[in-house]
Amino acid sequence: MLVLTLSAAISRMHPPVCGNQEAASCVGPTTKQMTFLLIGFGLLVIGSSGIRPCNLAFGADQFDPNTAPGRKGISSFFNWYYFSLTFAMMVSLTVIVYVQSNISWSLGLAIPTIMMFLSCALLFAGTKIYVRMVPKGSPLSSVEQVFVAAFKKRHLQLAEQPCVALFNYVSSDSLNSKLCYTDQFRFLNKAAIRTPEDEINSDGSAADPWRLCSIQQVEEVKCLLRVVPIWVAGTVYYLSVVQQQNYVIFQAFQSNRQLGHNHFRIPPASFIVFPFLCISIWLPIYDRILLPWLRKFTRKEDGITLLQKMGIGMFISIITMIISAIVEDRRRSLALTRPTLGITQEKGAISSLSGLWLIPQMTLSGLTEALTLFSESEFFYKQCPENMRSIAGSFLFVGMAGSSYLSSLFSSVVHKTSNWLAEDLNKGRLDYFFYLIAVLQILNLGYFLLCAKWYKYKEAGSNTKLSESKEQS
Fold first, then answer.
1. Do residues 389 and 57 lie in contact, with contact meaning Cβ atoms separated by under 8 Å?
2. Could you read off the pLDDT of 197-228 as tens digits, one per residue?
3. Environment class of 42 (CB within 10 Å of its CB; exposed 0-12, middle 13-18, buried 19+)
4. 315: alpha, beta or left, given left = phi > 0 and alpha = psi -120 to 50?
5. Distance CA 361, CA 252 (A)
6. 25 phi and psi, to 5 degrees?
7. pLDDT tens digits, residue range 55-89?
8. The model's pTM
């Protein structure tokens, strides 16, 4: 953030102001200026990749999952974490963007830079009170060992009672809860078959972990594999959110954005704020009103399961895309058949349909994120082994990045095979595109329901060592 701020504040670090000159006469950035800017973006990516997968897991680790108050605290923490996140994003898209656009780019970048510095100061100020789990090597090594050992012993036959016959060893300093045996992915169980060639250390562990793994290790890998199909469904779901946020700005450009009889017009980019506003309102209502009621009704600490919340969110996303298509069809029809409010620059006629009709679909889009996306993040955290929770935290952001690439590919294919996504929306059929996404989400929901029915929630005993560690901290 400091590098980006300097690139805007120091005149030699950016091209001269172009003003109202023709684009052809504007001076572009030099190699040094572009390199300096890219260094800032590179540092931003590295910093974000260190923060995003870890801060959510680190915050939830402050609660003891072996107690009822701790489990309730984790659920509430996820809700309030995303409430603060969406509120911050809403401020960024309004206040910070206004400062950058109308006052100064250097000041607009300096504000989040100062906030980031304060964030670091607050983080380090609390080091003495945090519950910190000391890492025990790379969890990916254990995953690799299971696959390698299972491949080496692929010709062996599984025992009739695998939970009794397989090698069962749990390290005394392990942070992971002891997992119950499951029948899914049985081919991995071969990694825990003990043969005469396998040697055992004095503490009971395998001498060669690349040839013999414990059934605990195998079950940890199964936890990771079980969430992958759910992760795929979440990635495809987020495609609808990305597409809607992309095209709502273009819809707003060709809609009536005037409020009342005054001359104020809603900026097109401001419609992106409504999903965040919906999330900021929904999460406190859900956490303080709906969740306690659901706990009494279902007699479950989480009210309803995370997979049920995700399924409801995916269903609402289908309704959202259908409503978006209906509104777009109406906007286009009015632009073509009734007197319009003028012509947008380099685009088509402005429809007389009020841009306020775009708010319901954006509000529903925010509701689907609150139900699906945030539940998905909590699901990964709770269903992955304790030593893989940072990996679980990265699942969500990798899936969101994958959705963005998938969205670009999807749009490119539609753009090349049809005229639905014309630059002038009145000449295209964006409503057909939204209907197509709705069909895709229907198929994805069907796939998700099959995965949810097949899925087995992680069953584990209490981790005494982990509980004692948190009490001492």
1. yes
2. 888 888 888 888 899 988 888 988 998 899 99
3. exposed
4. alpha
5. 13
6. -95, -5
7. 888 888 888 877 778 877 887 787 788 888 888 88
8. 0.80
